[in-house]
Amino acid sequence: QVQLQESGPGLVKPSQTLSLTCTVSGGSISSGDYYWSWIRQPPGKGLEWIGYIYYSGSTYYNPSLKSRVTISVDTSKNQFSLKLSSVTAADTAVYYCARVVRWQYYFDYWGQGTLVTVSS
Amino acid sequence: SYELTQPLSVSVALGQTARITCGGNNIGSKNVHWYQQKPGQAPVLVIYRDSNRPSGIPERFSGSNSGNTATLTISRAQAGDEADYYCQVWDSSTANVFGTGTKVTVL
């Protein structure tokens, strides 16, 4: 059974960079059958896709966030990471990592999520 | 950009059938996926590629997709089905898109 676990600071100051890591267990991040993705959900609101990465390092980002987002992968640690720069209060959300079935684009496994608050 | 519209809420009597719609331009030409999210929990995939159920999802959950509307149907609704439900598609111009979400209440 694949499991994903997010980790990182729960509080980030405005204008700084949000950094999170997702650790994958029970499966290899180097499997060619999946992408690895970040999704967020502001309190009381809906889901917003941030982007995904393939084990080779290829990325695809939400056009609305593209200028501020970087997703990277570390296959040796079976981890992938998110960096979101120049954050504001609007970036306060629960951040989820998830596995995406390649070419089908559905999210079949999710992490439990981690709340990141942007505040001074 | 591509948009998906869902009703804000749907109510269903215990044991009856709930239908949650997801509207989008020519959505019938796309693969639609559905997620269930209970309070404080991560979303769970309940339907993929319009009408397929992942392992462990009850047969009471079914899906269809045609024209401009996709539908998630919950038969014989149970109290445990109370949750928010989101549709999702991949669009070539917008990439991954989630619907606005529907809160299902079982009366």
Query: Would you report the number of β strands of chain A?
Result: 11
Task: Name the structural class of chain A.
Answer: mainly beta
Biggest sheet features of chain B: 6 strands, mixed
Sheet-strand content of chain A, in percent, reads over 45%
Largest sheet of chain A: 7 strands, mixed
Number of strands of chain B: 9
Q: Given the structure, what is the number of helices of chain B?
A: 0
Order of H and E elements of chain B: EEEEEEEEE
Describe this entry's structure for a reader.
The complex is a heterodimer of chains A (120) and B (107). With 120 residues, chain A is mainly beta. In chain A, strands 2, 4, 5, 6, 9, 10 and 11 form a 7-stranded mixed β-sheet that branches. Chain A has a 4-stranded antiparallel β-sheet with strand order 1-3-8-7, with no helix packed on it. In chain A, a hairpin with a 4-residue loop joins strand 7 and strand 8. Chain A is globular, with a radius of gyration of 13 Å. In chain A, 37% of the residues are buried. The model of chain A has no long low-confidence stretch (mean pLDDT 96). Chain B has 107 residues and is mostly beta strands. Chain B is 0% helix and 46% strand. Chain B contains no helices and 9 strands. In chain B, the strands form 2 sheets. In chain B, strands 1, 3, 4, 7, 8 and 9 form a 6-stranded mixed β-sheet that branches. In chain B, strand 7 and strand 8 form a beta hairpin. Chain B is globular and about 40 Å long. The termini of chain B are far apart. The model of chain B has no long low-confidence stretch (mean pLDDT 96).
